[in-house]
Amino acid sequence: MAVFEVADPGLGTDLSAVSGEEILERMAHLVDCEGAIDLRIGELLYAVESGDRRKTGTMSLRAFTKEFTNLDRTWATKLKNLAGPGRTIVKVALCRNWIPTSMAVEAPRDMTPEEEDAWVQGVRTGEIRRQTKSAHNRPRVDVDDPADAAVLHEARKLARTMVGGNCSDEVADRHMRKEWRNRSDGKDVVRRAMKRRDPPPPLEPIDWSTAIDPAAPVLGPREVPKDEMDARRILERLLRDKEMRTIEIGRLYQVVRDRKLYLLWGYDTMEHMVKKCFRVTIKTLQNYRDRARDLMIYPELIPAIESGMNARRVWLVYEVATEDNVARWLEVAKRTTVAELERAVAWSHETAGDFVLESYESAMSKTKSAHHWVALRAAKRPRRPPKRIEGVHPDQMEAARWYLANVKIPKQYGFEAVKEREEWTCEDPRCYVVSITCEGHHKKPRKRGGGNGDENAASECRCCHRGGIHVADEFIRMEKDDAGRDVYCYVDGIQVVVF
């Protein structure tokens, strides 16, 4: 049986003839399934991570979640950890809709069954709440001077290179303040950033065919993946169906509010009904409604998700497309990696008209077949310094100036200068991570006659270089097409031609 019944047509698109009771029951059913679906997503992520993720065509969890899911990397990690061994009572409570996913992923590990039961009861009664750091009470200042904004922009760029992983501005700012407060030696900051980190301990393999399945009463028996690629396939389908359910919940929420159907269940306001009957907040339902509204602006977007396109790709198209070119952007999204599509969208925001769209269409027309994806070097655009930056820590400017004055990346010479030319960015189109750990790579190996010239040099991050290219299985293989262009060939069959 499938992960859950994807053929369920729901109530259709025209709800005017559907009774209010049916709408309420359908909405409650969809919301009640969310915890079980989240657990199944975590199980599939765990199945991929406990095997060899590189067989899916991506060399890191960051790249995997970006390319094949619409999940935030931190959230994906929490779901994966929840699905691991232990916390059985917590999982059962989640699938029975007793506790929300946001609390289940925070449950302490290594609890005894008695402690788990007490923890679940504490969450249900409200005695145990999620520990959050409120940003409302933190002091914040705005950087109004364009010169100061440019300084902070450059400092963030350097800090992101040190931290790696394409971290957010907030993470880069915290890193700067920490080193500034510690008055760290700049050379030591660089050494620590370049130091090879020990890989995380391997996950304990789970026999999913015999493991307890708390989600089965809600979704039916789990579909056990045969290998990493099968787990990826099931995960992509599950995420697609979850997105479609989210859209339906958003539409139903608006109908319930407009027709005041909450009165049928004896509640005087929508907020009162949600608080008493659902394990989600009114804000979550409003976000679902807004997502559904946004996607319905262009009639092509929801069918694109239904046909199997990653929701992250669809949302990127929504961000950049117009009524006249949305179908053309969807075609580009089908033949670019998510990382490349993000570059294309950022480039398009800086360019008038359809120049960027036409550039990708021109590249696609020059490939041998529709199975060849494309990447454009021109899409790597320098980020312009903003004129103003809002809401930073009061000490941030002082920390940024200190960081720029003390942390210096050593000058790169010879073959390794490619890292500096590429601004410490991995050139793998499925990665594009910015990291001080990037390494110089010979496109044509020296043992096959490749030289040390600039034309044979590429910048690759440590994961892609040592874990993907220079391994016996060659999870990533670099070739040349007839026109001499670089082609990245991945183990899952995707080939990306770089123009």
Explained architecture:
With 499 residues, the protein is α+β, with helices and mostly antiparallel strands. Among the domains are: 20-113 and 211-295, no CATH class; 306-334 and 336-369, no CATH class; 410-498, no CATH class. It is 49% helix and 7% strand. A hairpin with a 4-residue loop joins strand 7 (486-490) and strand 8 (495-498). It is globular. The model is unreliable at 1-7 (pLDDT under 50).
Architecture blueprint of SSEs:
Blueprint: H1 20-32, H2 34-50, H3 61-68, H4 73-83, H5 88-95, H6 101-104, H7 113-125, E1 141-143, H8 146-163, H9 169-182, H10 186-194, H11 216-219, H12 228-258, H13 270-277, H14 282-295, H15 301-306, H16 311-320, H17 326-334, H18 338-349, H19 355-365, E2 372-375, E3 389-392, H20 396-406, H21 417-421, E4 439-442, E5 457-460, H22 462-469, E6 476-480, E7 486-490, E8 495-498
Parallel strand pairs: 2-8
Antiparallel strand pairs: 1-3, 4-5, 6-7, 7-8
Offer a quick outline of the entry.
This protein is α+β, with helices and mostly antiparallel strands and 499 residues long. The protein has helices at 20-32, 34-50, 61-68, 73-83, 88-95, 101-104, 113-125, 146-163, 169-182, 186-194, 216-219, 228-258, 270-277, 282-295, 301-306, 311-320, 326-334, 338-349, 355-365, 396-406, 417-421, 462-469, and strands at residues 141-143, 372-375, 389-392, 439-442, 457-460, 476-480, 486-490, 495-498.
